[in-house]
Design a protein that fits this description.
It holds the Pfam family DabA. This protein is an alpha/beta fold and 830 residues long. It is 46% helix and 10% strand.
Length: 830
């Protein structure tokens, strides 16, 4: 649609705005942080086409510069065979010699859609108008969404983001003077009350085609990508609760209103220059960069080649079936691979398994006291159950809650005094000395180790979120069956079955939740592990499982544990509930964990700059990192993740995967109908893709998709997010300290390699049934392989195309959100 039809565009503007907003990925609060694929809204485009779109509209480059690939080539990271394989895979006529010569090219210059706000005459000594407008909108967002730190809330906050901004801009005399835009007379009556009316009003004043409108809207949202992503997250979470939300559209409306005001403020010659600039942008729009994409694919194939060699070596090891003495179920997290490997190497009688770290239990956790419930499940899901902790009788719970409520009231009193305009300075002057010892103690790291995220040993019972009724035995059997079948553990049970959640603790780190888990809202998995163990030990549940073909022997006892990923220490939870008959085996297991922890720490020591220390000194050093409030790199998190493997552990056991692989157990012989694999490909595979591409984006374009420098972070709204320095926009993604050590990248930007041990026909059937998952494969957002009998990796042919090539199917406002959430829902459904 290239013809200028402003009237039609204005009538269709709401629909177009919704579609543009859907290209922005959501974000979560700091305390519920999950890794997000920043291009999730573009998954129906080929990765190369999506990259071209964001480069053309928003000026964002999503590949590494040429010198990165030159270094990989000259250092042997990429071989000639990898280049030839990439060329053959892409069916490209370019020669290897031409590719090598391309390394001397200058990196392409990206452009972006042209806004009238950047063509306003600049005033000497002041920032460009577009920057001032972005800053004003950013401040409006910060004050609107801040429900914790702000002490003066405007009434307009009750009526939506647009109404709040409209109230602020009407009372801000400086924005008009600084931008040079004349203040509309009687602004309150000049601008429509609702965002929908304002969106139509703004579109009527913009002489745009549909494609130009999309490009400009995209450019504006990328101008405040952090707040745009936050607004999308608000819409997403409201949708999960069954409510409509248009917060991102309201944000875009604000930009469009400024765009119309700026257009009207331009002189005649300024408007003519604006049209010429837009024409130049259309004419100069560059296509995909074929050379760098081939180099990127060769870089990824080099990693896949090394992975295949390791899996082939593992195929030659003994894979005979035996009943182990201990079975330990870990989260699929890449950090678990390291300690699992060392645990198995030191104790051959231990079998480790991989399963999603929330153990298939979509639950919120409520601790005693006034705090909010904490979701302990992937952020794409709405919780179905609530786990309320109890320490004993109702009277004991009541007394504890009263004591904790009073303590929180006292703290809130101090907070109010601290932020009061009258007492801010007097409070600091009168109470400052009271904090002196704490500052000295923290500076000297004398506040003890706090590397155990879940200290409580309280118990509780599952209740339904809606209605509050206790979860009945039948539904508890469903949960247990899904858990066991999901990791193909239905026979050969060990006497000790351990569920190991994982968590991370660091001090003075707003991004702490990002280290705990990449998927489960930034929470540790100890609570879920305890619920899983309690389910498996329940006699009524075991009786129900027998009727479903799963018989857990009486000698099998389930135990929960938690793995601290900073220290690699594993702590047994509820140890006092373990029967005497299992204590010797439990002690042996604890010794095995201690040895595995030592080995895992030695493996990680070099990357942390701690190599050369003894085991005891190394343990003390990593424990110190958990409480050192000046430590910006307590651990490397999920950096360098590169693959996810769905197969029995015997297919990869005994080989060093370098902490780069998510490992989820799957036995194809126990899944003839493919239902289990469907759950894995629509849940853990999608989650791993989100984690992988967030790390990828934070490396290839850290200034847009990364969180910047930790040292300059300031927290916004208590837990909304962080800004860098005095910036106006939220920073999304990962801080530079999480992917770079100051000299080298610690994460290799490769798209996820997915390896599945299953017949190709079964894999194709699942792709045909789930278009969103098929789009990830078809459009090369990840690479899908089948694991052969000898460990070879066989590329799975692309699934059939169900939609028009390069086009995303038209959907209603929230259909895209619902599809994203439903991918994971089947993983928890009986």
């Amino acid at each position: 649609m290239n013809a200028k039809v402003p009237m039609t565009l204005s009538l269709n503007s709401i629909s177009l705005m919704s579609e543009v907003c859907e290209t922005i990925a959501p974000t979560w609060p700091l305390d519920r942080w999950i890794a997000v694929n920043p291009w999730w809204g573009l998954r129906h485009l080929r990765a190369v086409d999506a990259a071209e779109k964001v480069a053309r509209d928003a000026g964002v480059d999503v590949l590494m510069p040429f010198h990165f690939y030159r270094t990989a080539w000259e250092g042997g990271r990429i071989r000639e065979g990898d280049l030839r394989a990439a060329l053959a895979e892409q069916d490209h006529s370019t020669t290897v010699g031409s590719l090598i010569a391309s390394l001397d090219q200058v990196d392409p210059i990206t452009s972006q859609a042209i806004s009238a706000t950047e063509h306003l005459p600049s005033t000497k000594g002041r920032s460009p108008a577009i920057e001032l407008i972005q800053e004003q909108i950013g401040r409006a967002c910060a004050s609107y969404f801040d429900q914790r730190q702000a002490r003066w809330n405007r009434q307009s906050q009750d009526h939506g983001l647009y109404a709040h901004w409209r109230d602020l801009v009407a009372r801000d005399p400086m924005i008009w003077r600084n931008t040079g835009i004349p203040r509309p007379e009687q602004l309150e009556g000049h601008l429509p009350q609702s965002w929908e009316e304002s969106a139509v009003w703004a579109a009527e004043g913009l002489d745009f085609s549909e494609s130009e409108f999309r490009a400009l809207a995209q450019r504006h949202l990328y101008g405040l990508i952090g707040w745009a992503s936050w607004c999308r997250g608000v819409d997403w979470r409201e949708m999960l609760e069954g409510r409509d939300s248009s917060t991102c559209c309201e944000l875009l409306t604000i930009f469009l209103v400024w765009e119309r005001w700026a257009t009207e403020a331009l002189p005649v010659e300024g408007k003519a220059e604006l049209q010429r600039a837009r024409k130049r942008h259309r004419d100069q729009a560059a296509g995909p960069d074929p050379y760098r994409w081939i180099w990127q694919r060769a870089y990824e194939l080099a990693w896949t080649r090394s992975l295949e060699q390791k899996l082939k070596a593992a195929a030659n090891l003994n894979t005979g079936r035996m009943t182990p003495a201990v079975q330990a179920v870990f989260c699929i997290d890449v950090r678990s691979e390291v300690i699992r490997r060392h645990l198995e190497n030191g104790r051959p009688g231990i079998q480790t398994l991989g399963f999603a770290g929330f153990f298939g239990i979509p639950v919120t956790h409520k601790k005693p006291g006034p705090g909010d419930e904490e979701p302990r499940l992937p952020g794409l899901l709405a919780p179905r159950y609530r786990f309320n902790e109890t320490i004993g009788t109702n009277e004991e719970n009541l007394q504890l809650n009263r004591r904790l409520d009073q303590r929180e009231m006292n703290r809130e009193t101090v907070r109010r005094a601290k932020y009061s305009s009258l007492s801010t300075f007097t409070l600091v002057e009168t109470t400052g000395l009271a904090w002196a010892w704490k500052l000295v103690r923290d500076s000297l790291n004398r506040n003890g180790s706090r590397s155990k995220p879940d200290q409580g040993e309280a118990h509780g019972r599952l209740h339904h979120v809606h209605g509050g009724d206790p979860v009945g035995d039948l539904e508890r059997v469903d949960l247990a069956e899904n858990l066991l079948r999901g990791m193909s553990l239905t026979d050969h049970f060990a006497s000790l079955l351990l569920f190991v959640g994982h968590g991370s603790h660091t001090d003075n780190n707003p991004n702490e939740a990002g280290l705990a888990c990449g998927a489960c809202g930034g929470k540790s998995g100890g609570v879920n592990a305890r619920i899983a163990a309690e389910l498996i030990n329940d006699r009524a549940v075991r009786a129900g499982l027998v009727a479903r073909g799963i018989q857990i022997p009486d000698f099998c006892h389930a135990v929960a544990a938690e793995h601290c990923t900073v220290t690699d220490r594993v702590r047994i939870l509820d140890r006092h509930t373990v029967p005497d008959s299992h204590l010797i085996r439990l002690q042996e297991l604890e010794e095995a964990f201690a040895d595995a922890g030592n080995a895992a720490r030695r493996e990680r020591a070099c990357a942390l700059g701690l190599n050369g220390l003894s085991d005891d000194d190394l343990l003390k050093a990593v424990e110190k990192r958990t409480v050192n409030w000046a430590e910006v790199r307590p651990e490397w998190g999920l950096a360098n993740n590169a693959a996810i493997i769905f197969a029995k552990r015997s297919r990869s056991r005994g080989t060093d995967l370098g902490g780069r692989c998510f490992l989820h157990d799957y036995d194809p012989d126990k899944d003839q109908d493919g239902k289990i694999l469907a759950g894995l490909m629509t849940a853990p595979m999608v989650v791993a893709n989100w984690i992988n591409l967030q790390y990828f984006a934070s490396v290839v374009s850290p200034e847009v998709y990364g969180a910047g420098n930790k040292l300059l972070h300031s927290v916004v709204g208590g837990n909304i997010g962080v800004i860098e320095g005095n910036g106006a926009d939220l920073r999304i993604g990962l801080p530079i300290q999480s992917v770079h050590d100051g000299r080298h990248w610690r994460h290799e930007p490769v798209r996820l390699t997915v390896v599945i041990d299953a017949p190709e026909a079964r894999i194709h059937q699942i792709l045909n049934d789930h278009d969103d998952v098929a789009a990830l494969v078809r459009n090369q957002w990840l690479w899908l392989y089948r694991l052969g009998d000898d460990g070879e990796l066989v590329a799975v042919a692309e699934p059939g195309i169900n939609t028009e090539a390069g086009q995303s199917p038209r959907k209603n406002r929230h259909q895209t959100l619902r599809e994203g959430a439903s991918l994971l829902a089947g993983f928890c459904r009986p």
